[in-house]
Specification:
The chain is an alpha/beta fold. The protein has a single domain, classed as Glutaredoxin, CATH 3.40.30. The protein has a 5-stranded mixed beta sheet with strand order 5-4-3-8-9. The termini are far apart. 34% of the residues are buried. The mean pLDDT is 94.
Length: 160
């Protein structure tokens, strides 16, 4: 059974390389609110949709004091191409060893077309200024998920 984090839990700390290979720590965001999301693979259709929806809503999220961070098992070089191709405006972190993915319960058993395998469980966490998880969403769908997050935060979506 994969670990599931609950609201009220302290967000596990991590340091991972971003799309440029620069280390980024969750601790760097102490004092700021964070929307942290985990996705399976850069430059795939569903992950691109989700990332672009975060990009398109980044102004509303930033105005409300939220930083967005995306994490996948992709290597930093691929994440850099993803950022550049889709004009993404937030850090994309590389976690090929599944360290943060596992700590957040976003890596585990999945079933697709009757086949069981280990992989990324698409998940999103809202973390407050003190590093406490206020919302934990697991097994989310890529399309429309950002609108759900924005609505949970009481904000207007870019497409509204």
């Amino acid at each position: 059974m994969t670990l599931r984090l609950e609201p009220g839990t302290r967000a596990p700390l991590f340091t991972l390389p971003d799309q440029d290979g620069k280390p980024v720590s969750l601790a760097d965001y102490r004092g700021h609110k964070v929307v942290l999301y985990f996705y399976p693979q850069a430059m795939t259709p569903a992950c691109t949709t989700q990332a672009c929806e975060f990009r398109d809503n980044s102004a509303a999220l930033a105005a409300a004091g939220y930083a967005v961070i995306g994490i996948s098992p992709d290597e930093a070089e691929r994440l850099g191409r993803f950022r550049d191709r889709d004009a993404l405006t937030f850090p994309l972190l590389s976690d090929p060893e599944h360290t943060a993915l596992t700590a957040y319960g976003a890596w585990g058993e999945k079933i697709n077309y009757g086949r069981t395998y280990e992989g990324v469980i698409r998940s999103t966490f809202i973390i407050d200024e003190e590093g406490i998880i206020t919302t934990a969403l697991y097994n989310v769908k890529a399309t429309g998920h950002v609108a759900r997050v924005v609505k949970l935060l009481g904000l207007e979506t870019a497409t509204a």
